[in-house]
Amino acid sequence: MLGYGDEYFEIVEVRAMEVLDSRGNPTLMVEVLTRGGGLGKALVPSGASKGAHEALELRDGDPARFRGKGVMRAVENVNRKIAPAIRGMNSSLQRAIDLKMIELDGTEDKSNLGANAILGVSMAVAKAAADTRGVPLYEYLGGISARTLPVPLMNLINGGKHAGNELSFQEFMIAPIGFKRFSDALRAGCEIYMALRELLRKRYGPSSVNVGDEGGFAPNLKGAREALDSLIDAIEAAGMRAGRDVVLALDPAASSFYDEASGMYAVDGELMDREGLISLYEDLVREYPIFSIEDPLHEEDFEGFSDLTRRLRYVQIVGDDLFVTNRDRLRRGAEVGAANAILIKPNQIGTLSETMDVVSDAGSFGYRCVLSHRSGETEDTTIADLAVGLGIGQIKAGAPARGERTAKYNRLLEIEHHLSESDSPQYYGAKLSPRRP
């Protein structure tokens, strides 16, 4: 603590204002100032593809402002309700502050104050405490042992709700695992992205390289195999080996193309039931070096997730909408063997403490974690520090394009450089080497 007493960590100011995310929609920026001069600033992301059980993102609903998407109610909740409640508290007591806000809200889904208001304060508090202590956020959270850089799952082809094309699956990703350093893996991802741009432009014309919300290209492809073939060709064109240097990952976001009334999935122009969709995944895993599939079935199908996890036991099956960074839903999944990994999105649950609890629970259940951005992002880089500080070996931050995405990658490069000066940073890639029967 550099000799500082508790009084230096006292919160003296909390303020919020309305700013913009990467889609031009309003979001919150929260600043927290401590008596010792520590300043924490946090900007809150927003998702387009949301799980039904996520904590509530409070919007104004006033059609005269931002088509109802304003967040002035959430801003006022920070400035007039949360600020008086936590002013004077010790910023290093993260859990106590988060609990104070949860109690002040008084609802299960944080719908009173808004999960966006609460999360903005929670993240800003952690940053203020780290700044007061004089250490970077990742070290503040994980101590001196925090030195593992995550594998970037880079969304290079967008579909579903993230694009305006006909692809049903939402994300087609690459994971550069066969490298010793994060910076080398990131370079590989960038070179594949560049090769893919050239390939798509030649095959499908200039409009095929328009980008979706997360920076990936949004070509009008006919189906999943055409997208996967394009990724394989781009990997090889960049001089790398698919399946060894670079593997593939999918995020179908199956709830977005599931019809509850019929129990059927509409996939690339074809209707199929749960068994048909699972069979499709089995075929794709046999045909392509896919190591991870996120949200392969709809968000309430714990039984189907369990069946798929057994049948594709060598594949990482990730629950996003299934778990929504919620301890109770994760526990339910672990009891029946639904998935073997969880996507971590702090704004799904609403506080940093609860996020850390879910990461801890996942480890005790033997589940991997993947830290994730949202499609409506900001220049905030908190998730980069969280990935390193909490030892989460995988991160989704989008394609290596658009400033709100590259900000996360640049922060990870900065962390790697900082660690190289005093320690030997590690890269998580070797732990994701594909396992096959």
User: Which CATH architecture of the largest domain is right?
Assistant: Alpha-Beta Barrel
**Which runs of at least 5 residues are low in confidence (pLDDT < 50)?**
none
Radius of gyration: 21 Å
Number of domains: 2
Strand proportion, as a percent range, falls in 15-25%
Order of helices and strands: EEEHHHHEEEEHHEEEEHEHEHEHHEHEHE
Strand order of the largest sheet: 5-16-15-14-13-12-8-7-6
Number of strands: 17
Query: What is the chains' assembly state?
Result: single chain
Molecular structure report:
This protein has 437 residues and is of the alpha/beta class. The protein has 2 domains: 8-134, 2-Layer Sandwich (Enolase-like, domain 1); 144-432, TIM Barrel (Alpha-Beta Barrel), CATH 3.20.20.120. 39% of the residues lie in helices and 18% in strands. The chain has helices at residues 72-86, 94-105, 115-133, 137-142, 182-204, 224-237, 274-287, 302-311, 327-336, 346-349, 352-365, 382-389, 403-422; strands at residues 11-20, 26-34, 39-43, 148-149, 151-152, 154-158, 171-176, 246-251, 258-259, 264-267, 270-272, 290-294, 316-319, 341-344, 368-372, 394-396, 426-427. The strands form 4 sheets. A 9-stranded mixed beta sheet has the order 5-16-15-14-13-12-8-7-6. A 3-stranded antiparallel beta sheet has the order 1-2-3. A hairpin with a 5-residue loop joins strand 1 and strand 2 (26-34).
